[in-house]
Amino acid sequence: MSQPVFVLVRPQMGENIGAAARAMWNFGLDRMRITSPRDGWPNQKAVAMASGAGRLLDEAGIFDSTAGALQDRTHVFATTARPRGLTKPVVTPERAMEMAAGMIGRGEKVAVLFGPERAGLENDDVVRANTIINVPVNPDFPSLNLAQCVLLCAYEWRRHTVETAPERTDMAGTQWATGIEVEKLSGHYEERLDEAGFFFPAHKADTMKLNLRNLWSRMPLTQADVQTLHGVLRQMVRWKNRRD
Amino acid sequence: MSQPVFVLVRPQMGENIGAAARAMWNFGLDRMRITSPRDGWPNQKAVAMASGAGRLLDEAGIFDSTAGALQDRTHVFATTARPRGLTKPVVTPERAMEMAAGMIGRGEKVAVLFGPERAGLENDDVVRANTIINVPVNPDFPSLNLAQCVLLCAYEWRRHTVETAPERTDMAGTQWATGIEVEKLSGHYEERLDEAGFFFPAHKADTMKLNLRNLWSRMPLTQADVQTLHGVLRQMVRWKNRRD
């Protein structure tokens, strides 16, 4: 599936360009564009930081203006810390990447603009955007850095495009205990604990037994768990008999 | 609302502890616990990196074991890069923080474990967890660092707890053009363009007019936009008359 282009506008430190590349590739995005990198291009600090994601820098498009970087784009998102008074819709990264996935599915060419470390995007850049992305951070501490903002957008892109079962589990293939197995376990404990005089006083016995059965049935027991629990009880009985 | 405790297990570099504190506070979380920080405690590099989020470090609980840090918790999530063969549910950060919000709403005390930079959590730590969190990264480049993993979990926590209108807009208070205003705009253009001989050839005129009307109605026009567009057309007419 094609993907949005992430455009770093006038980035300052090479380390941040490299960290942004890593953040993109962590979530499968590899189309980076850069406008007027402060320290020129290529940038060795960017390469060093990008390490495994260096390919993104090799293939990055370098432009001398935001307009140039957006020439072939049909929809542009701009990330800003505090939305200005510009007349544009402001959405969360979640909503933005959901929109982007839909647009790209319909053949649109999408870009996401990220501003320079210090100041962020200028209005001159933001006016070129169709939609503003604003990360809903803690208003008392809205200090996301460039790579973090890229990370959150890339994460949301993957969340809305790659089919990850909402809840995978390592327990695939484990043998779950069946109703009858849990029933037998309950019965085993009830019987032995009855002999042991556990259900006392008598007028509380029924409630105690009910609660115990409920305890077993509430647990996500595997067949192995059940065997272990049977074993525990058997051993206690053996031990008791030994002590007689 | 009470919140989950984020536990950094045996963190190595102070910078990463500070960055984790920033990432938490970016999304309004301020309950940090740390077990056996490699370089001791307090850690000046952590303080320097945390800057605005230094309070989290001052108030962080320091423990000498994972068990100690979890004593008062009722549900524990463990973040791992590659889920081991342990019999536990594995969920995404999204699902985990959704679960955590529900649990905390019901009075449970939740912790999220984050492993050391290099190796991540050991099985000894993971067995103490009820649920494993696995970030669905690019399998070809699953290299999230500690602070990034903390950032994504904190982001998801805020996403599932703080009411942020899904789609805020800077256009609150702008005067949208009414149907009649758009109608008049369409009429104005149609009339003048007709005079100008725009709708040619004749047999295409109706379709061209329909498309033009559709163009105006498709746009989210403000009253100011409408005035601008009227002005544009008037000016073209003035200009034309001047040139006669």
TrEMBL record, chains A, B:
Give yes or no: UniProt keyword S-adenosyl-L-methionine: yes
Residue span(s) of domain tRNA/rRNA methyltransferase SpoU type: 5-155
Recall the GO molecular function terms of this protein's record.
Answer: RNA binding; RNA methyltransferase activity
Alphabetical keyword list:
Methyltransferase, S-adenosyl-L-methionine, Transferase
Identification of the protein by name:
RNA methyltransferase, TrmH family, group 1
A biological process (GO) of this protein is: tRNA nucleoside ribose methylation
Q: Which family does it belong to?
A: Belongs to the class IV-like SAM-binding methyltransferase superfamily. RNA methyltransferase TrmH family.
Q: Which GO terms describe its cellular component?
A: cytosol
Q: Which InterPro entries match?
A: Alpha/beta_knot_MTases, RNA_MeTrfase_TrmJ/LasT, SpoU_MeTrfase, tRNA_m1G_MTases_N
